[in-house]
Amino acid sequence: xxxxxxxxxxxxxxxxxxxxxxxxxxxxxxxxxxxxxxxxxxxxxxxxxxxxxxxxxxxxxxxxxxxxxxxxxxxxxxxxxxxxxxxxxxxxxxxxxxxxxxxxxxxxxxxxxxxxxxxxxxxxxxxxxxxxxxxxxxxxxxxxxxxxxxxxxxxxxxxxxxxxxxxxxxxxxxxxxxxxxxxxxxxxxxxxxx
Length: 194
Fold this sequence. Notes:
Strand order of the largest sheet: 1-2-7-3-4-5-6
Largest sheet: 7 strands, antiparallel
Strand content: 15-25%
Mean pLDDT: 91
Number of domains: 2
CATH class of the largest domain: Mainly Beta
Helix content: 25-40%
CATH topology of the largest domain: Umud Fragment, subunit A
Order of helices and strands: HHEHHEEEEEEH
Number of helices: 5
CATH architecture of the largest domain: Ribbon
Number of strands: 7
């Protein structure tokens, strides 16, 4: 048994064959999927501790001072001023392909301007900025908007608190493309279109 384990260890970590590479990829997937991801979820109190940004709805294609006048009307109607917005985390948005680290939060803990992730009508979780929260009949109803969108999407005007996944804490540029590329390749292999 000891010799078998030594050979297996050598095969996995020292062998340069294609089969060894495939076994390494499978092992990495298993470790991340069943140990790292659930462990992070437990530590960060959310079912989805890491999400990839899959759209450009939070992108800013110019400086904040150039972006604000084009979007100010919407926010000012909600009593969110330019000064308020300048104090928000991710005030310059973030890009498709970024990887976001989330923390589970109760709606009562959220502040206007924070970036939250929720389950909307889309297949993927939605990550947009919280623009209002109302408490009615003992429960919160949230409302968000993508910084790059001209208006709110229909499903982000009245988000029940049960759809809340968490608040974005950290953005890691480009790392989300790993998931995006993998998901698109899997879709194509399954006969769909990306």
